């Protein structure tokens, strides 16, 4: 009977992780360029059943939740008409530099600091510097990432793609880091649209449905534990 409790408890833990992922998606529904988390379930260890059972019967220990990356669907483009706002169309990332190394992001809400350096909204440097005193309205960013002021090209955004985006490591500030699983970042025709931002690809209706489903599954697993407890109480009473 303890196996039944372990299986139900594992199911509760899996649904709790699923709820955490959905809650994070809903919290970032208005985050620029955010990609929803995809959660799947995997079987835990299976062992042969005890004596008195048919040959080949195995007992499971339940299921566990596991992240399988993030949804890569394009978010809706929102027009802002701000010169430093850029939206990536199709796959790809903007590569920027921080204290801990290079990071990737799809958040195109760029800023210019006091030194004229172009930064991401999380403060990472893009490697582009505009002349001090340049008006934001005079900055042009072309579809291939070239940044110009007037007729002068002052730099270019580093636009890259990654072979296996599911292998990227999220950093918690709407940026990602490369890993061995993701493979290297390469330049391969990423395009931008100036004066727009990419919205989150979280669908509120789907997220709410997933949350309700996870809550109901959690409740059913807790009921299974209570039922196992009652069965053990009956068994103990029979022994007495």
How much of the sequence lies in strands comes to 25-35%
Low-pLDDT sequence parts: none
The structural domain count equals 2
**Count of discrete alpha- or pi-helical segments spanning 4 or more residues:** 2
The SSE order reads: HEEEEEEEEEEEEEEEEEEEEH
Using the CA coordinates, give the radius of gyration.
Answer: 25 Å
User: How many E-type strands?
Assistant: 20
Structural class per helix/strand content?
A: alpha+beta
From the N-terminal CA to the C-terminal CA, the straight-line distance is 18 Å
Helicity range = 25-40%
Order of strands across the widest beta sheet?
Answer: 8-7-15-18
Shape call: elongated
Largest sheet: 4 strands, antiparallel
Mean pLDDT: 86
Can you characterise this structure?
The protein is of the alpha+beta class and 240 residues long. The protein folds into two domains: 2-73 and 202-239, no CATH class; 77-198, no CATH class. It is 26% helix and 33% strand. The strands form eight sheets. Strands 8-7-15-18 form a four-stranded antiparallel β-sheet, with no helix packed on it. Strand 7 (93-98) and strand 8 form a beta hairpin. Helix 1 packs antiparallel against helix 2 (204-239). The chain is elongated, with a radius of gyration of 25 Å. 25% of the residues are buried. The model has no long low-confidence stretch (mean pLDDT 86).
Show the helix and strand layout.
Blueprint: H1 2-27, E1 37-43, E2 46-48, E3 58-60, E4 63-70, E5 77-79, E6 86-89, E7 93-98, E8 101-105, E9 111-112, E10 117-119, E11 125-129, E12 139-141, E13 146-149, E14 152-156, E15 158-162, E16 169-170, E17 176-177, E18 185-186, E19 191-194, E20 196-198, H2 204-239
Antiparallel strand pairs: 1-4, 2-3, 5-20, 6-19, 7-8, 7-15, 9-10, 10-11, 12-13, 13-14, 15-18, 16-17
């Amino acid at each position: 009977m303890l196996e039944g409790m372990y299986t139900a408890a594992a199911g509760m833990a899996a649904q709790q992780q699923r709820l955490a992922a959905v809650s994070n998606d809903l919290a970032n529904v208005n985050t620029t360029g955010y990609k929803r988390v995809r959660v799947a379930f995997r079987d835990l260890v299976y062992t042969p059943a005890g004596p008195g059972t048919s040959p080949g019967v195995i007992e499971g220990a339940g299921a566990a939740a596991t992240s399988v990356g993030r949804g890569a669907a394009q978010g809706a483009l929102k027009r802002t008409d701000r010169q430093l706002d850029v939206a990536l169309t199709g796959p790809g990332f903007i590569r920027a530099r921080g204290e801990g190394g290079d990071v990737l992001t799809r958040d195109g809400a760029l800023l210019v600091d006091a030194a004229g350096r172009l930064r991401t909204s999380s403060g990472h440097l893009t490697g582009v510097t505009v002349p001090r005193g340049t008006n934001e309205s005079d900055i042009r960013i072309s579809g291939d990432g070239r940044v110009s002021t007037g007729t002068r090209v002052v730099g270019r955004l580093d636009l890259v793609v990654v072979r296996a985006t599911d292998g990227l490591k999220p950093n918690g500030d709407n940026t990602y880091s490369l890993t061995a699983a993701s493979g290297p970042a390469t330049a391969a025709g990423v395009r931008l649209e100036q004066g727009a931002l990419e919205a989150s690809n979280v669908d509120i209706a789907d997220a709410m449905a997933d949350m309700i489903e996870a809550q109901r599954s959690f409740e059913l697993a807790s009921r299974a534990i209570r039922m196992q407890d009652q069965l053990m109480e009956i068994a103990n009473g029979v022994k007495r």
